[in-house]
C-alpha cells in the first residue's frame, strides 16, 4: 500500500503561532502473532515518537514545504500483543531561519503491519499542548537557528486535557529520507571543570543568556563544595552531591572533554522546585561559557521539580565543549549533564596511512570535524548556525568522498540547493531557508560542486534531474556579460557580494573591521568589475561544460567553454598589474584597486593567468605578505593554485598545513576552527566557531596531493 494513503495531516488549533509543541495520542492492537510493524512519520518542523512509553526516534529531515520527507521505523521491538500506545510530539518553529523554511504546522503518521493499517493521523486523533514546554516567544539561540527552549517540569505534571485535533491540507507528494537516519548515542563521559556559587543579577527579567552572563560567580574548591575529590566524572549512578553556603545557589561547569553535537541531557536532584539556567559553548572566558554574544542566546531554562529530574531536549541539537548550569539551591546531586551525541553514520575508509605523527593527528581531527558538520545536510558549524552554504559544503563534499567514501550525503545536499533556486536564477543563501539575501559567488560554487560530484560518482541521472537548475543559474550570470568581456556585478539589493571574511572581500563597510589600509568596494553601484566574481564564473563555466558534455548537451558545453575563454582573456587584460606582476581585485568606475591573496589564487586556479606568468605569480603567492591575507575558508584556492606545480610546492604546502592546523592542536583543539586565530572579539562579535566544516580541508589535500606522490610517508592502503 502507498505510504500515508489514508493518513491526514493534523495539528493543534494554534493559528499562526510560533515555537509550538503539541502532543498527538493514538493506539493500536496486535494479535498474538504478527509480522513486522512499521511506523512512518513526517512533521513540520520536527517530531518525537514514543511507543508504549519508549522513545523510538526524532529529528525530522531538513526539507521544504513542497519537498516533504518522511522517516520509516521498524517498531517491532517496541510493541506487544494487545493494545499499544503511540505518542507523537510535533514541534513547529513557525518562522523561517537559515535551517528551516516556514511551512504549515502539522504531523503525519501511520502504523502498519504488513498490508494492514493499524492507525494513522486523522480527525479522530486527540491532541494537547505538550506538557512542560513553553510555546510562543522564547529566546533565540541565533537568528540562524531560531528558538532555544524553556521547559517547566512542575507544570508538566498537570497536563491539559486531550481535545480534538485540526485537519490541514496535506502534501501533494512525500518522499523517503534520502540519507541514513541520524544515530543518537549513549551518554559520553564528562567531567566537572569548575564549581561554586552564583548570585542572581538585579534584573530578573533578562533573557536567559544575559541572565547567566550577569550572574556573579564565585568558584569554590571541591573540598568547599563537600564532595569526594576523586569523583569528578559523570554519569554517576549515586550522584555527586555539591553543597555550598552563600550566594543564590550552586553553579557547575561541565567539560564534555571534546567538541560534541547532540541533545541536551540532564539528570539531577534538588530539594525544591526552581529555575535551572543552562548555557552551552565552545570556549571559556574566565571559567564562564559565553551565553550571550551580540543578541545570541546560547542558553535555555529548565524549571525543575523537587526531587529527581530527568530531561532530554530532543527537538534541536546543541553543540559545544562546555555546559554551565546555575542551580537554584545550595544543595544539588548531579547524576549527569551533557550532550547525547547525534551523528550521521559514516564508514571510515581507513585508507590513508601517514607515518608523520602530526599529520596523522591532523587527519584524525579533520575527520572528526567533518562528521560533526554532517547531520541532515552539511553544516558550516554545529554550534552557531548548523547551516548548509554553497562554499563551505564544497570543501566538505571533497573531503567526504575521500575519507568516508560517501556520495549519497553530498547528493542529498546538492538536491536541497537545487530546490532552493530563486526566480532570478540565484540560489538561496542556505538550504532549506528563506533568507533575505543571497551570495552570488556561493551560487557559482554550487555548479563546481555538481561537477565534482559527477566526477566522483558518474551519476548522470542526478545531474540530468538538476540540469535545468544549472542552466538557469549559468544563464543569469551569462546575461551580465559586459563589453569588456567579463560579467558585471550583481546589483540587486538582496545580493551580498561576499567572497571571504577579509577587508574589501566581505561586502561590508570597512568600519566593521579593525582599521586597515584598504578601500571598500561597493558592487551594488553597478560600476564595479570584480576579478573574484569572474574567476568563480570561469570555474563554474568549465564545471557546467563538463556536466553538459557528459549529458550529451554538446551545444551548451561549447557555448560555456567559449564564454570561459572570453572571460579569462578579459580577466588578465583588465586586472593585471604588469609593473608589479600581480592582479587587482576590482575595476571601480575605471579605477583599479585592491589586491588580495584570494584574487591571485583564484585567477591561477581558473586558468586566466598566461602560462609565462604563472611560475612567478605562484612564487609571489607563496612568499608575498603585503596582499590582503587569505582566510581559512578560502585556503583550498591557495593550495590548489600552488599545487598546480606539485614538484615545487608539495613539500611547502604540507609544511604549512602542519604549522597552521598543528597550531590549533597545540592549543587543545578537538575539532578545527572557523579561523586560524580562534576566538577573537572582532570576529562575529566573539562568536567564531571552534568547529567548522572547511577546517577538514587537510583530508582533501592528503588524498589528492600527498598520497598519490608518496610524499612524507603518506600512502593509500
Report a brief summary of the structure.
It is built from 14 helices and 36 strands. The protein is α+β, with helices and mostly antiparallel strands. Strands 13, 17, 18, 19, 20, 21, 22, 23, 26, 27, 28 and 29 form a twelve-stranded mixed beta sheet that branches. The protein has a six-stranded antiparallel beta sheet with strand order 5-4-7-2-10-14, with no helix packed on it.
List the helices and strands and how they pair.
Layout: E1 9-11, E2 20-30, E3 37-44, E4 46-51, E5 54-58, E6 68-74, E7 82-92, E8 106-113, E9 116-120, E10 126-129, E11 140-142, E12 146-147, E13 150-152, E14 163-164, E15 166-168, E16 174-176, E17 183-184, E18 190-199, H1 208-213, E19 216-219, H2 222-225, E20 233-234, E21 240-243, E22 249-270, E23 274-281, E24 292-293, E25 296-297, E26 299-304, E27 307-312, E28 318-326, E29 331-343, E30 352-354, H3 357-372, H4 390-403, H5 408-418, H6 440-457, H7 460-478, E31 528-530, H8 531-550, H9 554-575, E32 576-577, E33 582-583, E34 586-588, E35 591-593, H10 597-606, H11 614-623, H12 635-642, H13 646-666, H14 697-706, E36 714-716
Helix pairs in contact: 3-14, 4-5, 4-6, 4-14, 5-6, 6-7, 6-8, 7-8, 8-9, 8-10, 10-11, 10-12, 13-14
Report on the structure:
With 717 residues, the protein is α+β, with helices and mostly antiparallel strands. It has three domains: 9-179, Jelly Rolls (Sandwich); 184-343, Jelly Rolls (Sandwich); 352-716, Glycosyltransferase. The protein is 26% helix and 27% strand. The strands form nine sheets. Strands 13, 17, 18, 19, 20, 21, 22, 23, 26, 27, 28 and 29 form a twelve-stranded mixed sheet that branches. Strands 5-4-7-2-10-14 form a six-stranded antiparallel sheet, with no helix packed on it. Helix 5 runs antiparallel to helix 6, helix 6 (440-457) runs antiparallel to helix 7 and helix 8 packs antiparallel against helix 9. The radius of gyration is 27 Å and the shape is globular. Residues 510-518 have low confidence and may be disordered.
Amino acid at each position: 500500500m502507498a505510504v500515508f494513503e489514508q493518513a491526514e495531516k493534523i495539528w493543534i488549533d494554534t493559528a499562526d503561532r510560533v515555537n509550538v509543541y503539541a502532543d498527538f495520542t493514538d493506539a493500536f492492537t496486535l494479535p498474538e502473532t504478527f509480522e513486522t510493524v512499521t511506523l512512518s512519520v513526517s512533521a513540520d518542523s520536527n517530531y518525537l515518537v514514543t511507543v508504549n512509553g519508549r522513545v523510538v526516534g526524532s529529528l525530522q529531515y531538513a526539507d521544504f514545504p513542497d519537498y516533504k520527507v518522511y522517516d520509516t521505523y521498524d517498531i517491532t521491538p517496541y510493541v506487544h500483543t494487545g493494545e499499544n500506545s503511540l505518542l507523537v510530539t510535533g514541534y513547529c518553529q513557525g518562522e523561517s531561519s537559515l535551517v528551516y523554511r516556514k511551512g504549515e504546522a502539522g504531523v503525519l503518521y501511520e502504523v502498519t503491519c504488513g498490508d494492514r493499517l493499524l492507525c494513522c493521523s486523522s480527525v479522530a486523533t486527540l491532541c494537547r499542548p505538550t506538557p512542560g514546554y513553553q510555546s510562543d516567544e522564547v529566546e533565540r539561540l541565533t537568528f540562524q537557528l531560531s528558538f532555544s527552549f524553556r521547559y517547566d517540569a512542575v507544570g508538566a505534571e498537570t497536563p491539559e486535557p486531550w481535545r480534538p485535533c485540526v485537519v490541514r491540507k496535506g502534501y501533494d507528494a512525500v518522499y523517503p529520507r534520502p540519507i541514513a537516519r541520524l544515530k543518537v548515542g549513549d551518554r559520553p563521559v564528562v567531567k566537572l571543570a569548575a564549581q561554586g556559587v552564583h548570585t542572581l543579577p538585579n534584573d530578573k527579567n533578562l533573557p536567559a543568556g544575559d541572565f547567566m552572563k550577569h550572574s556573579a560567580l564565585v568558584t569554590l574548591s571541591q573540598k568547599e563544595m563537600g564532595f569526594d575529590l576523586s569523583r569528578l566524572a559523570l554519569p554517576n549512578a549515586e550522584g555527586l552531591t555539591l553543597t555550598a553556603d552563600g550566594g543564590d545557589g550552586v553553579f557547575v561547569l561541565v567539560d564534555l572533554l571534546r567538541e560534541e553535537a547532540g541533545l541536551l541531557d540532564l539528570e539531577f536532584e534538588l530539594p525544591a522546585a526552581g529555575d535551572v539556567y543552562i548555557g552551552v559553548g565552545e570556549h571559556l572566558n574566565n571559567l564562564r561559557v559565553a551565553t550571550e554574544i551580540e543578541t545570541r542566546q546560547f542558553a535555555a531554562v529548565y524549571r525543575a521539580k523537587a526531587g529527581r529530574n530527568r530531561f532530554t531536549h530532543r527537538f534541536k541539537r546543541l553543540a559545544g565543549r562546555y555546559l554551565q548550569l546555575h542551580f537554584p539551591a545550595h544543595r544539588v546531586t548531579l547524576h549527569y549533564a551533557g550532550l547525547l551525541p547525534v551523528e550521521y553514520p559514516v564508514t571510515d575508509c581507513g585508507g590513508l596511512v601517514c607515518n608523520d605523527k602530526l599529520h596523522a593527528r591532523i587527519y584524525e581531527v579533520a575527520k572528526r570535524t567533518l562528521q560533526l558538520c554532517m547531520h541532515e545536510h552539511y553544516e558550516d558549524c554545529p554550534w552557531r548556525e548548523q547551516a548548509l552554504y554553497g562554499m563551505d559544503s564544497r570543501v566538505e563534499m571533497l573531503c567526504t568522498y575521500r575519507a568516508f567514501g560517501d556520495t549519497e550525503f553530498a547528493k542529498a545536499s546538492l538536491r536541497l540547493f537545487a530546490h532552493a533556486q530563486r526566480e532570478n536564477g540565484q540560489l538561496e543563501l542556505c538550504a532549506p531557508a528563506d533568507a533575505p539575501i543571497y551570495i552570488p559567488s556561493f551560487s557559482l560554487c554550487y555548479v563546481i560542486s555538481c561537477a565534482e560530484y559527477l566526477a566522483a560518482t558518474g551519476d548522470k541521472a542526478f545531474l540530468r534531474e538538476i540540469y535545468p537548475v544549472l542552466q538557469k543559474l549559468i544563464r543569469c550570470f551569462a546575461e551580465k556579460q559586459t563589453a569588456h568581456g567579463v560579467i558585471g556585478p550583481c546589483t540587486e539589493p538582496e545580493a551580498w557580494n561576499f567572497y571571504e571574511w577579509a577587508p574589501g572581500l566581505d561586502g561590508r563597510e570597512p568600519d566593521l573591521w579593525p582599521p586597515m589600509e584598504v578601500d571598500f568596494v561597493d558592487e551594488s553601484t553597478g560600476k564595479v568589475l570584480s576579478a573574484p566574481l569572474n574567476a568563480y564564473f570561469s570555474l563554474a563555466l568549465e564545471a557546467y561544460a563538463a556536466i553538459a558534455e557528459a549529458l550529451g548537451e554538446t551545444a551548451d558545453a561549447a557555448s560555456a567553454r567559449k564564454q570561459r575563454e572570453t572571460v579569462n582573456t578579459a580577466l588578465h587584460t583588465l586586472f593585471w598589474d604588469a609593473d608589479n606582476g600581480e592582479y587587482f581585485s576590482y575595476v571601480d568606475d575605471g579605477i583599479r584597486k585592491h589586491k588580495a591573496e584570494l584574487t591571485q589564487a583564484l585567477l591561477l586556479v581558473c586558468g586566466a593567468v598566461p602560462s609565462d606568468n604563472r611560475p612567478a605569480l605562484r612564487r609571489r603567492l607563496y612568499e608575498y605578505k603585503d596582499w590582503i591575507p587569505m582566510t581559512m575558508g578560502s585556503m583550498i584556492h591557495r593550495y590548489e593554485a600552488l599545487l598546480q606545480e606539485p614538484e615545487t610546492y608539495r613539500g611547502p604546502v604540507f609544511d604549512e598545513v602542519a604549522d597552521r592546523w598543528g597550531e590549533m592542536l597545540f592549543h587543545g583543539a578537538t575539532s578545527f576552527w572557523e579561523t586560524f586565530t580562534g576566538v577573537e572579539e572582532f570576529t562575529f562579535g566573539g562568536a567564531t566557531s571552534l568547529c567548522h566544516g572547511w577546517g577538514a580541508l587537510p583530508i582533501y589535500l592528503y588524498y589528492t596531493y600527498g598520497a598519490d606522490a608518496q610524499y612524507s610517508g603518506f600512502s593509500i592502503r
